[in-house]
Structures are given as structure tokens and as C-alpha cells.
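Support request, please re-run this one:
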Amino acid sequence: MGKRVICGAIALFVALALFWVDRFVGGVILGVLGVLLAAGGLAELYSLGRRAGLQPFTGIGVLVGGLLLPYAMIMPSSARGEPSPETLFGLHLIPFVLLLLMLLFAASRRAGPLRSQLSNVSYTAFGVLYVAVPLMFLARTRLLAPDGWGYVLLIVAVAELGDIGAYFTGKGLGRHQLAPRVSPNKTIEGAIGGLVASMLAAALVAWIFRLEGLTQGGIFPIMAFGALVGIAGQAGDLTASFIKRCAEAKDSGGVLPAMGGVLDLIDCLLVAGPIGYCILVAWLRI
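Re-run finished. Output below.
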């Protein structure tokens, strides 16, 4: 536990420093970090797939997933009515059509029956949808006015501090298992502790960094935001646990000392990111 706490504290300090610096460089730092996280997370996910007996097209998945982040940063917004929703829908479809074509071409050239490649194509596409697309939502969150960097920080703090709160509450008070087949160490008490930590994190970040548009309604809407995003973060954690359980792996990788892999670091954000973005867009009416 000691190493985990120390590494977690260092990671949190580095993240705060990066968020603070990024506000002065227009999202460049978070954009590069997002590409690295997407590529690393996808590589680990496909490695888990190979452990489960699949043969995903790792190169294609990592390439397309990594490019989705800069693509999301340069895509236009419909905030002022242009381009039309239909145009935006088409722009969103472009990378996924290209992904499908690349996967079908690669599968047709791989030796063996084509029927056996269906699961490999599906798992590769799933990886992009599961890892890269949620990080696209965080990239779009960075572009929200007036404090995009702060909104990203808010979502990350709610999800990650909720995960830390669940861990320590479960260690100290956990008695009843939450999902024993997926993750035997997770408890109902830990989930409640994580939810409380997420709500407190939302309130603290919103008020400390004076995020305009979020503090005008008082404390309760912000804490409700923390609760919803916190629940989403815990769902993301359970999803990653399910995938690792299928691959009979404890961690997604060994990149981070005492903490596992990249996927272990961002699993909460893979559900919390899209949920947080959608709530913010509705809340800020952007």
C-alpha cells in the first residue's frame, strides 16, 4: 500500500502541474498526453486480448486511436449553429469508416479462414471505441469555453479521487463484495466511500479554481455532477476489471511502478469522460 500511495501522490502532483501549465499553451500538453495515453492504453488492451486467445490488429488500432485525439482537437464546433449537426455527424464518421476499411483489408490478407478473423476485427474496433473515443471527449472538453482546462481537471479529479476514496474505504471498512466475479476486492462500502470522495472533489475543484458557470448554482448541483461522474468512473473501473478477468491478468501492464499499466491509470476516465462532457455541455449550454 505504501508504494501505491507514494506513486499515486506523485502522479497526482504531475497531473496538476501539467493541467496548470496547459492553460497557457492552448491544450498542446494535454493533447500530446492524450495521444500517448490512447496509444499506451490500446497497446495494453490488445495485449490482454492476445492473452485471451485473440489476435487483434494492434498496429491499425493504435494508429487510428492515436490520431483520433488531434482529430478531435481540430474538429469544428456547432456552438454557433455551424456547421450543421448533419455535417458534424459525417465528420465523426470519417475515422471510423477508415478504421473499418483498414481492418477488413488487413483481415482479408491474414492467413487462415476469414470466419476466424471476425472476432479479431471486432475486438480491434472495440478497443478504439473503448479507449480512444472517451479520450476524444476529454479533448473536446478542453475546448469548452471559458475554462476548458479546468473542466478537464474537474472530470479527472472526480474520477481519480473517487477511485482513491473507494480503495481506502474498501480497505478499511469493506465487508460486502460489490462484484465478486469481476473484482473480488471491490466492496459496496468502498463504492459508497468513492462516491463521497467524488462529490467532495467536484466541490473543491469547482470552487478552488473558480470555474465560471459551475459555481453560480450553489454547492448542490456541483455535488450532483460529482455523484454522476463518480458513478461513471466506478463503472469504468469495473469494465476494465472485467476485461482483465477475461484475460486472467491482475494488471493491464507494468509501465507504472506499484500501479500497473496505462489502462489501469485511465480506466475510470473511459466512462467518466463522455458522461462529464455531456453534462457540462448541457449545463453550460455550449
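The chain has a mean pLDDT of 86. The first strand starts at residue 177 and ends at 179.
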